[in-house]
Amino acid sequence: MIVPEIWVSLEDIASHTGLSKDTIRNYIKKNVIPYHRIGKQYKFRISEIDAWVESGKSAEIDTALILGYVK
């Protein structure tokens, strides 16, 4: 039997990644982190976040934000 992955909250993802909730919100606003919106809430799959981090895209966005490429 396949167990479906549960959706987690912004707070859970902040804790999982070690980032602040404000940083996660900023990434959502810039549409650079994988997320899903359910009503007024943002939900995440840990597997998608882990794949995003492992792909190096999370590091690229930090550099782009610092250099002002992403607004």
UniProtKB/TrEMBL annotation:
Entry's transmembrane regions: none
Domain Helix-turn-helix: 7-56
One Pfam family recorded for the sequence: HTH_17
InterPro entries: DNA-bd_dom_put_sf (IPR009061), HTH_17 (IPR041657), SinI_DNA-bd (IPR010093), WH-like_DNA-bd_sf (IPR036388)
GO terms of molecular function: DNA binding
Name of this protein: Helix-turn-helix domain-containing protein
The organism of origin for this protein: bioreactor metagenome
